[in-house]
Amino acid sequence: MSGSSSGSGGGSYGRGAAILSVGIGVTGLVTYAFFSLASHTLSEEAYGGITLLWSAVFIVVSVLYRPVEQLLSRTIADRDARGQEGSSHLRVAATIQLALGALFAVVALALRGPIQDDLFGGSETLYWVLIVAVLAYAASYFARGFLAGHHRFGLYGGLVLAESLSRVLFPLAVAVGVAEGQSVVAIGIVAAPFFSLAVVPLAITRQLREDPPEADAEQDALEKDQAGAEFTLAHGSGFAAAVLLIMLAEQTFLNAGPLIVKATEGGAEGAALAGFVFNVLLIARAPLQLFQAVQTSILPHLTRLTAQGEDDPFRRSVNATLIATAGFAALVALTMLVAGPFLMDLLFGGKADYGRGGLVIVSVGMGLYLAAATLNQAALARGAVRQAAGCWVSAATLFVIFLVIPGWEDRVLQVEIGFVGAALLLSGLLYLLYRRRD
Asked: Per-residue pLDDT tens for 116-152?
């Protein structure tokens, strides 16, 4: 049985989360270093361009490619628990991923003028970094889903760690004087997904040892004889489309603030303010990187429990994760209350005044958002993907509406309040969905 050596049960989830926490925890710190180095070495306007590029790249790759990552993670774990063989799910996922990458390329090339001139201030380098980076991440996210579904958490952590370490070398080169300018820092964003794929040969080698190539034809034939085993494009596309809406809403939560501030303020002042808002929301974004360890391991874990009908372990896993999330958020909020402005100045320089209250607000919003992300994985494991998508889209839409309300003198405070309010709404809706299906 494919991936059978990966183990299952609560111990598997705990070990997987622990292994990933190390790799992704270091990744989060390295990501902070990337932005800290960029902030100290570039002008406010140039740094604002880097944050906009980052936001654009990760909005697109998360919306387009994480649905396939989640599809693979859930499907591989479900098939493993049910003893189903074959590779139709891999072919379906690859087809969807290639189609999404091609769609992006066509749209981005057609809209080159608005993207290059209006978003990136005429920078051809930033535009092409966006194009190549997004296409490169198609392979990276496919690999993540494959590794998560097969419980290759060590390799998954190695992938994201290699990505972040390679990326930070570029602003470091600028900081030490080996290179200079915004373009060098931007190139780090496009180099990262290529370096991350260094773990793929290891994953393929391990999988071939477990599933010999000569058995593939026999497995594909057996798959069609197993009730419910055949995985169709319609099935995969339906799941991926709903998760795509969730990812779009997720990126709206994390990136709408700086993008809307840039669009409404305009000019160099708008770019600098967008960079400031981006820095504040890093309080939410960086812990989310660490939380990827939980998200990545809990989805296949909960999917297995669902397939095996183990309701009590399912509830215990979700509740334990929610409790840990609440404790972590309380610790971050306390840290921001005591030393938030000092830490932000230390990381990003004293170019702006970070309000203590606003940092605490974002910390609370981060905790609510992490709770929502946990409940979302529970919904995906149970197959309630369409209902979960409805919760995300509703909350994200209200968040955007709040951000465009005119009359706010303090745009940063508007983003902070909007974020915590939308996160509260989202977590509440997903909790109601969880309790209804419990």
From this structure: 998 898 999 999 999 999 999 999 999 999 988 888 8
- Of 68-77, 221-230, 249-258, the least confident: 221-230
Q: CA-to-CA distance for 120 and 52, rounded, in angstroms? A: 8
Query: Which of 274, 264, 251 is closest to 404 using CA atoms?
Result: 264
Cα separation, 160 vs 290, in Å, equals 11
Instruction: Say if residue 215's pLDDT is above 50.
Output: no
Distance CA 26, CA 28 (A): 5
If one compares 194 and 29, the residue with the highest pLDDT of the two is 194
273 Cβ contact partners less than 8 Å away, ≥ 6 residues apart: 261, 262, 265, 411, 412
Q: How far apart are the first and last CA of the chain?
A: 30
What is the model's pTM?
A: 0.77
Q: Could you write out the three-class secondary structure of 237-281?
A: HHHHHHHHHHHHHHHHHHHHHHHHHHHHHCHHHHHHHHHHHHHHH
What is the amino acid identity at position 252? Answer: T
pLDDT at residue number 5: 39
- Among residues 290, 243, 373, 401, the alpha carbon closest in space to that of 20 is found at 290
Residue type, 390: G
Q: How confident is the model at residue 223 (pLDDT cuts 50, 70, 90)?
A: very low
Higher pLDDT, 29 or 286: 29
Question: Across residues 184-197, what is the average pLDDT?
Answer: 92
Tell me the CA distances in angstroms from 133 to 2, 122, 275, one per residue in order. 31, 18, 21
pLDDT category of residue 347 using cuts at 50, 70 and 90: confident
Tokens 């002008």 belong to residue: 43
Output the CA angle 153-291-52, nearest 5 degrees: 110
Structure tokens at 75: 């499907």
d(CA 283, CA 360): 9
Q: What is the largest CA-CA distance in the chain?
A: 67
| Structure token pair of residue 410 | 């303090």
Euclidean distance between CA atoms 239 and 71, whole angstroms? 7
Burial per residue of 178-190, b for 16 or more beta-carbon CB atoms within 10 angstroms, e otherwise: eeeebbbbbbbbb
Whole-angstrom distance, CA of residue 74 vs CA of residue 236: 11
- Under 8 Å CB-to-CB from 118, ≥6 apart: which residues? none
